C-alpha cells in the first residue's frame, strides 16, 4: 500500500495560483518516482478568501490545516485590499494561521547557486559554496512580550517593549536546531547578546543545557552584531544559525540577501504538531496572470516539506538537485534572466525542473 500524505495547498493571491500549479506538477513527478500519494486539498487565504467569504482566514481553511500533515502556501496580499481595516487585510490571514497552528520556528535557507553567483552582492570567492540555514524563534521575544506600550512620562512620549523568553521556548527551538544540524554539517551557531541582555544570558544557558544531548554537533555562541559582520566576511563558515525573534528577523534577511536571488528562497514555519511551507517572496500582483513568475522558491518550499515533515530526504534532495541542474543548463525566469541564458515562463521552468528529476 502506498504511503499517503495529506497536504493543504493555499494558492492565495497574485502569482500564487500560477506558482502553485507549477509546484503541484513537480509533486506529481515525485509521486511517480517514489510511489507515494499526496492527498491534496485546496483552501482559501488572504485576499482570495476575503473576496469569497469576507475573512482572510476562514474557519474551513483552519479546519483543513489541522487535518493535514503539512500546509503549502504561495503568497497573500495586493493593492486591491490595501484600503481595508488592518484586522481585515490579507496579511492577517497569514499571521493568524501561524498563531493558530503555534508555529514557533521559522526556517530560512541561504544557498548560493553556482549558476547565479553573479547576482550576489559579495565577491564570488566569498559566496561560492554558501549553504546555511537560519532558524528564528517565531512566537516569543520582544514582538510578543508584555508589558508594551506608548505613554507620556515627565512631559514626553515614551515607547517601551519587553524582550522575554522562558526556558521551554528556548529549549524547543534549540532542540529543533540541533536535530536539523544532525542532517547537515553538524554545526550550530547560537546568536544572542549575552554580554548586555539578561534574556540572552538565559538563552545561552538553556542552549548549552540542550546541547548536552547533542554532543555530536558542534556549538558556537556568537553576539548578534558580530554575526551580522561575519555573515558578510565569511558566510561559508555557517551551517545552522539559531536565534530569537528580533535578531532572527534581521539575520534571516541578511542571509537571504547574500545569495542575491530573493525570488529563489523557500521557508518553513514549524510547530509541535503542524508545519507551513511558503516562499519568502510576495504576491507580485503586477505580474500576476502572465505566466512569467519564478516558481522555484515555492518548489523548493515543497522540497523542505518533503525533507522536514515527511522525512523524504532523498526526494527533497532530488528536487534541490533538479533546480540546480536546470539553472546550470541556463533556464531562467524573467527575474533572474541574464543575456546568454534561456528565458522561460513559469510552466517551462517547472517542466525544466521535472525533466531533471
UniProtKB/TrEMBL annotation:
GO molecular function terms listed in the Swiss-Prot or TrEMBL record: 3-isopropylmalate dehydrogenase activity; magnesium ion binding; NAD binding
Keyword check for Secreted: no
Annotated NAD(+) binding sites: 78-91, 282-294
Binding site for substrate: 98, 108, 136, 225
Top-rank taxon: Bacteria
UniProt GO cellular component terms: cytosol
PROSITE patterns documented for this protein: IDH_IMDH
UniProt keyword annotation of Endoplasmic reticulum present: no
Catalytic reactions on record: (2R,3S)-3-isopropylmalate + NAD(+) = 4-methyl-2-oxopentanoate + CO2 + NADH
Binding-site residues, Mg(2+): 225, 249, 253
This protein's UniProt keywords: Amino-acid biosynthesis, Branched-chain amino acid biosynthesis, Cytoplasm, Leucine biosynthesis, Magnesium, Manganese, Metal-binding, NAD, Oxidoreductase
Subcellular location: Cytoplasm
Database matches in PANTHER family: 3-ISOPROPYLMALATE DEHYDROGENASE
Alphabetical list of HAMAP family matching this protein: LeuB_type1 (MF_01033)
Main function: Catalyzes the oxidation of 3-carboxy-2-hydroxy-4-methylpentanoate (3-isopropylmalate) to 3-carboxy-4-methyl-2-oxopentanoate. The product decarboxylates to 4-methyl-2 oxopentanoate.
Listed name of the protein: 3-isopropylmalate dehydrogenase
Organism from which the protein derives: Hydrogenothermus marinus
Amino acid at each position: 500500500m502506498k504511503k499517503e500524505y495529506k497536504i493543504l495547498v493555499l494558492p492565495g493571491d497574485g502569482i500564487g495560483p500560477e506558482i502553485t500549479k507549477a509546484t503541484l506538477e513537480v509533486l506529481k513527478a515525485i509521486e511517480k518516482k517514489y510511489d507515494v500519494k499526496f492527498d491534496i486539498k485546496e483552501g482559501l487565504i488572504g485576499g482570495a478568501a476575503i473576496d469569497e467569504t469576507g475573512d482572510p482566514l476562514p474557519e474551513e481553511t483552519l479546519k483543513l490545516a489541522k487535518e493535514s500533515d503539512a500546509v503549502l502556501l504561495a503568497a497573500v496580499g495586493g493593492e486591491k485590499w490595501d484600503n481595508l481595516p488592518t484586522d481585515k487585510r490579507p496579511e492577517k490571514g497569514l499571521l493568524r494561521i501561524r498563531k493558530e497552528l503555534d508555529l514557533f520556528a521559522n526556517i530560512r535557507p541561504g544557498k548560493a547557486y553556482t549558476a547565479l553567483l553573479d547576482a550576489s552582492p559579495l565577491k564570488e570567492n566569498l559566496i561560492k559554496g554558501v549553504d546555511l540555514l537560519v532558524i528564528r524563534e517565531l512566537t516569543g521575544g520582544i514582538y510578543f512580550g508584555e508589558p508594551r506600550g506608548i505613554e507620556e512620562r515627565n512631559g514626553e512620549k515614551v515607547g517601551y517593549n519587553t524582550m522575554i523568553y522562558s526556558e521551554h521556548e528556548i529549549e524547543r527551538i534549540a532542540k529543533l536546531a540541533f536535530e536539523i544540524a544532525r542532517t547537515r554539517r553538524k554545526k550550530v551557531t547560537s546568536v544572542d547578546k549575552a554580554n548586555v541582555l539578561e534574556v540572552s544570558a538565559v538563552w545561552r544557558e538553556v542552549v548549552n543545557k540542550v546541547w548536552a544531548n547533542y554532543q555530536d554537533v558542534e556549538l558556537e555562541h556568537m553576539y548578534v552584531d558580530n554575526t551580522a559582520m561575519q555573515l558578510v566576511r565569511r558566510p561559508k563558515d555557517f551551517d545552522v544559525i539559531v536565534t530569537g525573534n528580533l535578531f532572527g528577523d534581521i539575520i534571516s534577511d541578511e542571509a537571504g540577501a547574500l545569495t542575491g536571488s530573493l525570488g529563489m528562497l523557500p521557508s518553513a514555519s514549524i510547530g509541535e504538531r503542524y508545519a507551513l511551507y511558503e516562499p519568502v517572496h510576495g504576491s507580485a500582483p503586477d505580474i500576476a496572470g502572465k505566466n512569467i513568475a519564478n516558481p522555484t522558491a515555492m518548489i523548493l518550499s515543497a522540497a523542505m516539506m518533503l525533507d522536514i515533515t515527511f522525512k523524504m530526504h532523498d526526494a527533497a534532495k532530488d528536487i534541490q538537485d533538479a533546480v540546480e541542474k536546470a539553472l546550470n543548463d541556463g533556464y531562467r525566469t524573467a527575474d533572474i534572466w541574464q543575456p546568454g541564458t534561456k528565458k522561460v515562463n513559469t510552466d517551462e521552468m517547472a517542466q525544466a525542473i521535472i525533466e531533471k528529476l
